Each structure stands twice: as C-alpha cells, then as structure tokens.
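Example 228.
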Amino acid sequence: MQPHVLVVEDEDALSELLSYNLKKEGFRVSLAADGEEAMMLVEERQPDVVVLDWMLPKISGIEVCRRLRSRHETRNLPIIMLTARGEEADRIRGLDTGADDYIVKPFLMKELFARVRAVLRRIRPGLAEDSVTVGDITIDRVAHRVVRSDLEIHLGPTEFRLLDYLMQHPGRVFSREQLLDAVWGSDVYVEARTVDVHIGRLRKALSAGGEHDPIRTVRSAGYALNAA
Ligand code: CA
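Predicted structure in complex with calcium ion:
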C-alpha cells in the first residue's frame, strides 16, 4: 500500500512539482490549495502524512496544524511544515504547535522524501519500509515479491495490495468495508463480496506450499492477519 501524502500548498507550481515528485517516489498524493480544503480532505479521508505550507490563504498552516492536533482522530497525524521563513523563533513556534518536522524553502526533493519517510517510520513502522515481515511471510514492495518460508508466492495485484495492508496491522480485524476503502479506494464501487473472493485467492496462494492459513475470519466482523 502506497503511503498517502496530503500536500497543502497555495503556489500551483510548487504544488505540482511536489505532487509529481512524490508520485514518482511511490507515494499517493492529494492536493489542497488552502487550509479549509485541507481540513475537508482530511475529514473525508485521513492521509498518512501532511506536508503543510505555513503561508496559506484563509486558514494559515499553523492554524491547520493546531486544529489537526486538537482533534482526537488526527492528534497523531504526522505533519511536516514548509516555510520560507528560516528564523529560529518561527521554527520553534511551528514545532510548538505540534508539527513533527519543519523544512525551509527552498529545499531539495531528496530532503523532503527523507523527512516524509522518517515521520512515517516513527509513527507507523512498516508503512515506509521497503519490506515487511510478519511471521514467515515477507513482502518486498520494491521488487513486488512475496516470500513465505523461502518460497516465492505469486499474487495478483489486488491480492498483493490486500496482503500489504493486512501486514501493516498484524492481528487487527478489518471489516470488508474497511478493506474495500483501503485497497480499492473509496471512490470505486465494488461489492463487499468481492473482498471475500480476493481473500480466498490470497489464502490459497499463501498456503500453496502446505503451510497453515495465516488469515483469520472473524464472523460478522471481517478478516485479520495472524500476528505470529
Ligand atoms: Ca504559500
């Protein structure tokens, strides 16, 4: 699953540049041109990290940061502030308001990628890594490979994304609707039964070598990947 970055920036050229480069780097990107739009997008669908410009029309970046921090659902959402101001006082103010990190414009894309990965690693280990292992299953996001007990497992693209998502939260139970939203996207209409079909295929592939089924069905709740 690609980490989802919300970029909040009112300068179109920079916004486009960030979007292009972040996408090329493997992130999913949403854009907001002001603070109000940012709050709306976060409400609709919470990103994994917010890259937030300080100087924005309507609601300032600092105010957006403060609002996100004051809400229970977004209290721990990673926020990286972007600003043209480099003064120490502003930097401290940004961090005081709850930003996780701070980048002064102009900056190198490489620097931004490194900061984004660093906050993701801190807050959601596993999300920003190239490969994740749960029990005897390893998923390699760069090579797009899955290995179980030294045997390569062949998965279709949907099964791969499904497994990737489950492996980010071992042991946690997800409803069909949650899996649809995370793996297929909320803007796609797919029947909940479709999830069962792909879970079935994933199970079959993962157990092809005779190993036990690592996916637990929780009656009337959903599915979980066993943690051990
Ligand atoms: Ca700006």
